[in-house]
Amino acid sequence: MEILQHAHELAERLERREISAEEVTQAYLDRMERLEPHVHAFLARTPEQALATAREVDRRRAQGEPVHPLAGIPVAVKDNLCTEGVPTTAGSRALENFRPPYSATAVARLHEAGLPLVGKTNLDEFAMGASTEASAFGPTRNPWDRERVPGGSSGGSAAAVAAGQVPWALGSDTGGSIRQPAAFCGVVGLKPSYGRVSRYGLIPFASSLDQVGILTRDVTDAAHLLEVLAGHDLADSTSVDAPVPAYRKALQAEPRGLRIGLPVQFFGDQIDPAVRQAVRQAVDRMAEAGAEVVELSLPTVEHALACYLVLAPAEASSNLGRYDGVRYGFRAQPDGRPAKDVTEMFLATRGEGLGLEVKRRILLGTYVLSAGAYQTYYLQALKVRTLIRQDFERAFEQVDVLATPTTPTTAFRLGERLERPMRMYQSDLCTVPVNLAGLPAISLPCGQDAGGLPVGLQLIGRYLDEAGLLRAAYAFEQVAGCRAAVPPLAHLGTGAGEVTIHG
Amino acid sequence: MAEAQLEMLDLGDLEAVIGLEVHVELATQSKLFCGCATTFGAPPNTQVCPVCLGLPGTLPVLNARAVEYAVKAGLALGCQITERSLFARKNYFYPDLPKAYQISQHERPLCRNGAVTITTPEGLRRIGIVRVHLEEEAGKLVHSGDSIIGSEATHVDYNRAGIPLIEIVTAPDLRSPEEARLFLEELRTILRYIGVSDVRMEEGSLRCDANISLRPKGSTALGTKTEVKNMNSFRAVVRALTYEAQRQAEVIRSGEAVRPETRAWDEARQVTVAMRAKEEADDYRYFTEPDLVPLVLTQERIEGWRAELPELPAARRERFVASYGLPEYDASVLTSSRLVADFFEAVAQEVGDAKLASNWVMGEVLRWAKTEGGEVVELPVSVQGLAELLGLLRQGVINQAAAKSVLEEMVASGRGAREIVAERGLEQISDRSELEALVDRVIAENPKPVEDIRAGQTKAIGFLMGQVMRLSQGKANPQQVRELLHERLGVGG
Fold first, then answer.
1. Which of A81, A201, A369 is opposite residue B285, by nearest beta carbon?
2. pLDDT tens digits, A74-97
3. Per the CB < 8 Å rule, is A324 touching B61?
4. Do A90 and B89 touch (CB under 8 A)?
5. pLDDT tier at B461 (50, 70, 90 boundaries)?
6. Which end of chain B is more exposed for a tag (fewer CB within 10 A), N or C?
7. Does A462 score more than 60 pLDDT?
8. Mind listing the pLDDT tens digit for each residue in A193-233?
9. How many CA atoms lie within 13 A of A28 on its CB side?
């Protein structure tokens, strides 16, 4: 089997019975094992479970039973999505050895479609971070440069897809946690509209911003997988009860008639010239091919990061209160003995169970919700959020999509920003406004900087218009050459750059 | 302070200002945000699921029936219903609170601005309802051993976690512990009438905290208040508030200032004890619950629920007085339970005599009724059964004494009145010639009392009456016997 095939290509070969689901799954499991020491994308691997699912798919196909078109194509899931019976840690010591008795709705939908789950991917603890360095279980490496971060918090999923350990993976995105690592690793990262995919079983960071999404190697795969995941879920009151279009049918390479907006606030000095240039070039190619390109302004967006740094920690401080050692997960034994009372148990459990970045955000969030600060910070941030949403609404009266850089820089070095939290947060500058507005957005590979590191281009769509967004993304991919490249690491141990599937 | 004093309160020239916060569990089949059962007394942690245990990633889904019950409670308490209300998180750490926050309502509660009228010895009093909101219960701590002190372990039972509650907050309109009790009783009656809660204090389905302050009589300013918690019965509310009012009065009279603080009622010692000062109060960091959408109710929906409400106790009391001519007291006893009121009305209609029905329901029937937690849960006879018995009484077939003994047997055996009367031959003797024979015989056999009566000592008639009744084995029609005796002995009247 050629490495780094697209899932939709594999689906066709499975459909034609050229290969079996078991062969595909085994081939990916082999790649996963071989590359894992170099990448550390996974916190848990589930080969037996994956092969069992694959064999079941093969059995059904052989017996002529109906199977989902994507059945048998392996998938990895970020470790903050609950998987029944499979350890789910959210990258935190607080949930070490936690095996949920239920699966997230998104995970259940993958399972129903017959996608073998090969493992759980690494992340910043509770999805709080932009480098995957805040994982309690060690950082993931960027397949393009192992001295660099893969981005975060869905760094494990992005690196696994980039290295070809899996054809695709699920992530979650609260302020850029899918799109930013997708950009750093040179793959496609789709964050659907808030409410498009059920959050049930997604271990929350900030409930009003969190959204489950997808990392793939091309836009077609993203469209395929979104069809599996999207839709109303009675278990999530914030999931949207709206029809789910056939996203694959929306994909058209035609740039003519497409109106692309360039918000000036996303092309300022905080953005590396190399990044700006790569994004401009892709947009220029679209213009040359007939797309209409207009510059416009989103004036409130410059307050987005500040607004996000109030709202997200506020919700996090509340969402993370439950890790107290009473019911499940980690419980501290101060000095090797049981705590002498409940307060000591709470303090020791949370003190030892939660990492530095998580504590920083809990402190920040607790403060902005407290009696003296609520009006000044929390309420004010809510108002700014409304203004940001209105800015986007006005923009979409003029254009179909907005194009921006996904990140201000390409992947930074491991350790470079660990001691400088504000620099770390800056990495989400371009992605955070989208979460605040609840809009769908996608990061596409958009060339490389001088050092050969991938650059990401972000497209932002109208609320619930994933079809329009994917259509534009497909045009960028086909016309402007926004395609995933293969990092050298992916060839490791394969000699000719190919693996062969026998049989 | 001696215990006896806690029954009475004399504050001299001061008056108490009291407001209550009452938590009532709603009688839904399932919890507020998940499908778990709410049965009381199930083995620990058998009515739990990932949602009410607060497992990571789980989300709340609002129970529509709980909303209905809360709105009906609000309507019955005269509230305005908020068309777009919000849920909020109340954040604090405690082992019985699975998510480390309680989903409650803060801004935009479901119901606002209502009132309840209570009847006090001084007349009717209107008690304002500031708000009624919906929230979830916490779990329950169970300490092994006899007391929390020295207990080796504490267990947590989450069966209760997530059961729907309404919190009812009154205005500071209550002026005495006794008024607080009257209010709670009226509240209990109303909530049971509309069927939204069992309101059983001993099962913890009604809990009450109180704010209390004192001020000079005639003043409209509010004094410094304390909050009193942990009152587990209506009696405890009266005693705790009486104690606290007296304590505050002593503080004020000694020239000191009442400290704003939260105090707990110590049932064993019959005192309130300081728990914490107000400035140490928790900061709950309320914010709008992002896992739920705003609760939007249309006017049609609200009015539909209003139309489903039964006639409420106050209205029913007034109607009983007006249309059945019952005394206030009788009307209030009969309406204190919807079951009793319905029963009374049905019997009254069947028999066509409201006064007779009311006497029997209030007397005999309630004496035999099964009650639990102050609520009538089962009546001893059916409407038809009692109506049949009262019909026989009214037609003069049996007399009062026989009727009571028949009812007793009806309750014991479940058989009908007519059947018992026939079997035991209890039909009253109303035949004039038969009665004349009995009366004449008694007159003949008792010359001395007869002489006394003829000499003007008419009270001996009672003795002769008794003799006739005895001779008839209790079956003689007493009215007719009395008339015959008067006639035969030439007594006026």
1. A369
2. 999 999 999 999 999 999 999 998
3. no
4. no
5. confident
6. C
7. yes
8. 999 999 999 999 999 999 999 999 999 999 999 999 999 99
9. 37
Q: Smallest CA–CA separation between A155 and chain B, in Å?
A: 20
| C-alpha to C-alpha distance for A81 and A153, rounded to whole angstroms | 13
Q: Give the C-alpha separation, A168 to A162, whole Å.
A: 9
What sign does the dihedral A297-A303-A304-A305 (CA atoms) show? positive
C-beta atoms of B56 and A318 within 8 A: no
What is the identity of the amino acid at B449? Answer: P
DSSP string, B224-252: --EEEEEE-SHHHHHHHHHHHHHHHHHHH
The tokens describing B399, both together, are 């007399």
CA distances from A305 to A192, A260, A364 (A): 20, 24, 14
Nearest to A100 among B55, B91, B154 (CB): B55
Q: Alpha helix locations (H) across B151-233?
A: 177-193
- Positions of A marked active-site: 78, 153, 177
Q: Residue A80: its chain B contacts at CB < 8 A?
A: 57
CB contact under 8 A, A314 and B287: yes
Contact A424, A417 (CB under 8 A): yes
The dihedral sign for the CA sequence B302, B303, B308, B311: positive
Q: Cα separations (Å) of B89 from A201, B102, B107, B419? A: 20, 6, 11, 64
CATH number for the domain that contains residue A454: 3.90.1300.10
Gap between the Cα atoms of B493 and B483, Å rounded: 9
Pick the residue from chain A with its C-alpha nearest to B157: A327
Task: Give the residue among A471, A381, A485, A500 at the shortest CA–CA distance from A190.
Answer: A471
Query: Which residues of B fall within a CB distance of 8 Å from A367?
Result: none
Residues 211-270 of A with CB under 8 A from B: 234-238
- Residue A163 belongs to a domain: yes
Domain annotation covers residue A294: no
Among the partner-chain residues B57, B59, B95, the one whose CB lies closest to the CB of A342 is: B95
* Contact A380/B at CB under 8 A: no
Cβ-based interface (< 8 Å): residues of B facing A? 50, 53-62, 89, 91, 93, 95, 98-101, 154, 156, 283, 285-287, 290-293
pLDDT of residue B146: 61
Nearest in space to A224 (alpha carbons), one of A404, A401, A7, A386: A7
Kindly list the residues from chain B whose CB atom is less than 8 angstroms away from the CB atom of residue A100.
Answer: 50, 55-57
ipTM score of the complex? 0.95
Q: Tell me the C-alpha distance between B330 and A326, whole Å.
A: 54
**DSSP per residue over A104-123, as a string?**
-HHHHHHHHTT--EEEEE--
Considering only CB atoms, which chain B residues are within 8 Å of A235? 59, 61
Whole-number Å distance between alpha carbons of A2 and A9: 11
For the stretch A322-348, pLDDT in tens is 999 999 999 998 888 888 889 999 999
Same domain, A434 and A370: no
Domain tally for chain A? 2
Residue that the structure tokens 């504050």 belong to: B11
| β-bridge mates for residue A287, sequence order | none
- pLDDT for the residue numbered B149: 61
* CATH number of B432-489, picked from 2.60.120.20, 3.10.310.50, 1.10.10.410, 3.40.50.10610: 1.10.10.410
The residue ranges of every structural domain in chain B are: 3-304, 311-424, 432-489
Please give the backbone phi and psi of residue A124, each rounded to the nearest 5 degrees, phi first: -65, 145
pLDDT digits (tens, 9 = 90+) for B271-294: 999 998 877 777 999 999 999 999
Contact (Cβ atoms closer than 8 angstroms) between residue A92 and residue A353: yes
The closest alpha carbon to A250, from A8, A401, A482, A469, belongs to: A469
Of A185, A191, A124, A133, which is closest to residue A159 (Cα–Cα)? A185
